Amino acid sequence: MARVIGGISTSHIPSIGKAIENNLQETEYWQPFFKNFPGIHAWLEQEKPDVAVVFYNDHGLEFFLDKKPTFAIGAAASYMNADEGWGIPTIPAIPGDPEFSWHICNHLVESEFDITICQEMKVDHGLTVPMQLMWPNNSYSHMKVIPVCLNVEQHPMPSPKRCYNLGKAIGEAIDSYDKDLKVVVLGTGGLSHQLDGERAGYINKEFDLYCMDKLISDPDELSKLTIHDLIANGGAQGPEFIMWMGMRGALNGELNVLQSDYHAPISNTGAGTMLIENK
């Protein structure tokens, strides 16, 4: 049977892609962020997952404000990205796993989740930056990826509890898949940040560290938060934390935190990085 071997959380801001392109990882500004990934690379090399389920949000490449599904899941054989206007170079196609995706989609619908199933789907920096961080030099061709896109751009947005339960249902679907596969789950985005308005540049380190702690020790407590709580405490873009809640929901074993790091600011963002083993 398929099984979730662990979860990884990371920021996905587009400037990370520019830093990778320009080989800035060891510069004074970027080194405190990139130094957190060699341990993750070593773990991925050791565990050799077959599939990555990636919780992310689309920033207008595939879904714009005129059509914004609450939950969208890719069921394509491969995923391409395109020029988003950030100056980030496109990366090679990311392999998909349609059969596994359809299994998850069927389970979610049976579990009364309303999802948009995408047999063609462009993926933006919300997914491509984490792929570059986890598998440097675009070395992900051996991986299959299942994109899980959550709406954090247009209200109404799904609550932390709803996304946590979505992750649980995806974890159940993975456990019931009858192929021997190792699955790693990625929660991307955030943490606290606000890109515009009166609070532009806002970062709340205390709240970020609280969320990182409770994510492991008491996710049910985090499920009590509303989207407005995330905005009030984490800035207008703070709701990206719901992707972390989806990732956490899919982890249903005994958890062992192998790595937990926080650095701010990176492009006016509080960046958290976690590596969580799911025993």
UniProtKB/TrEMBL annotation:
Keyword Transmembrane listed: no
Organism: Vibrio coralliirubri
Keywords annotated in UniProt: Oxidoreductase
Domain Extradiol ring-cleavage dioxygenase class III enzyme subunit B: 8-258
Gene Ontology molecular function terms on file: ferrous iron binding; protocatechuate 4,5-dioxygenase activity
EC number: 1.13.11.8
Coiled coil: none
Enzyme class: oxidoreductase
Matching Gene3D superfamilies: LigB-like
Descriptive protein name: Protocatechuate 4,5-dioxygenase beta chain
Residue intervals passing through the bilayer: none
Gene label: ligB
Pfam family, one: LigB
Keyword Oxidoreductase: yes
Matches recorded under InterPro entries: Xdiol_dOase_suB
